[in-house]
Design brief:
It is built from two helices and eight strands, in the order ααββββββββ. By secondary structure, the chain is an alpha+beta fold.
Amino acid sequence: MKTFYAAFTSLFSLVILLLSGSTAHAAALGADWTQATSSANWSGRETYSVSFDDKIWVLGGYSTGYLNDVWYSEDGASWTQATASADWSTRSYFTTAVFDDKMWVIGGHSGGRVNDVWHSEDGVSWTEATSSAEWTERYGHSSVVFDNKL
């Protein structure tokens, strides 16, 4: 409960500072943003991202259709395409996680709900952990790593 209270208090303080125009205090609380690039190489999309191997990764998503490309950046300004077409099907509304030194793509929607699970150590080569997890097909869900479990 103390952790929740501390987080709520910090968030509430940030909102008050932003509303009052106190930029010096807001910046100290992490509200100061700098645009790294106005136009990344990857197309605009509903996207899914993860931090892995000291890089920011953008995975699949939805633009004018479902996508399964994978991009990464070491600075947020310069982007490199790891693959134009990952081994997992094009999709959106999936979750990503980092676990066991791998990136994970879990479930999602690709014209229908899916419950497959994939992982990669480099963003290029993907391995299917299961084509049909024990849980029902789903999208718009969450995934976490806790107690050394995914």
